[in-house]
Amino acid sequence: MDLLTMSRLAIKHTENAVAESIYRNTGYDLTKPIAFYGLVNEHCNVKCRQCDFWRLKHYKEEMTIQEWQKALLSIKELVGEFSINFSGGEPFLKKGFVDLLAFCSQNGIHAGVTTNGSLMTRENAAKTVAARPFNVNFSVDAPNAELHDYLRGYPGLFDKLSNGLKFLREECEKQDVKFPIIVKPTINRLNFRLLPDIAEWAQQMGATAINFQPIFDWTREASEELWIEKEEHEELTKVIEHLIKMKHNDAPIMNSEQMLRLILPHFCKENAPPENRPCLVGLRNLWIETDGNVRLCYDYPVIGNVKDQSAREIWYGEKAEKIRKQTLNCDKLCLLTCVSQKTLQDKVMMGLKLLKN
Q: Do the Cβ atoms of 253 and 222 come closer than 8 Å?
């Protein structure tokens, strides 16, 4: 990642912001997807308490690496230069995944990945850095092994991911490659008091930045054990204010101040406030699932499939147009970092934060 690349991507975001305004005021659709997310598998080797992938009895069909390559080139034909973040499951479980990262780099596609860190061995770190990723995100829910490994359901995971982060940094220096390494904690009742400590741990480990995301009540454990209830909201507010102060003091926190202040309303299960509406994810997001199905938002129906349709056909199809209008009227407060909408200023500030660090 460099200033020139970030500048080109920023121009694309600016152009899309103009297209979004035209669409909202006239209904004339000049939009193109600007944020891309690829779910390469559902298989996972950890048992996170807030996730249900590892509990599934049946997994969706997985696209082959070749099918992913075809889909990505179709997207590039539609939008030109773009960035995509891959996740799972655990992406590094998928055979050939690092080859997919390399393919992206070779074809001018900026590809990042979110991992639990369990498979970031020294060998995989070397291969990953050689593939020139756009970024690597590590899911880290505590600054210590006891709590992190409990939340992730994998004894020894904290030590593995800590070593993996170290291996990745060493390989970056060895191969003279630079890209952001980002720590991504999920906020819950058991760890919210430790969020400042996680931020400090991330800095000590040499991570580029940290990006917080609250849990969602998708599992029984999330609802009954991990949800931050009313009696703890005052304490949560103090922690959030502390994070904002850290951010003002130049801590590498990617979340905007506004997004940090929305964490409490999230746990209060409030709707999105007026200043965060309308929701624009339907005018900018493309979410590709492991079987090739495409959504504009995980809460809305499938709009097409990249295995048998081009990106252009999907984006401007009737299903997409119908759901685009629906998302504009959505009042849900969504802080899932991969789909939560960000202002143009938010995106610029996040980019500058990464470049600075």
A: no
Written as tens digits, the pLDDT of the chain (357 aa) is 677 777 787 788 888 889 999 999 999 999 999 999 999 999 999 999 999 889 988 999 999 999 999 999 999 999 999 999 999 999 999 999 999 999 999 999 999 999 999 999 999 999 999 999 999 999 999 999 999 999 999 999 999 999 999 999 999 999 999 999 999 999 999 999 999 999 999 999 999 999 999 999 989 999 999 999 999 999 999 999 999 999 999 999 999 999 999 999 999 999 988 888 888 899 999 999 999 999 999 889 999 999 999 999 999 999 999 999 999 999 888 886 555 555 555 555 555 555 566
Helix residue ranges, H only, 116-156: 122-130, 145-152
Q: Which of 142, 140, 131, 141 is nearest to 109 (CA)?
A: 131
Strands 35-39 and 285-288: parallel
Q: Are strands 293-295 and 304-305 parallel, antiparallel or unpaired?
A: antiparallel
The DSSP call for residue 64 is P
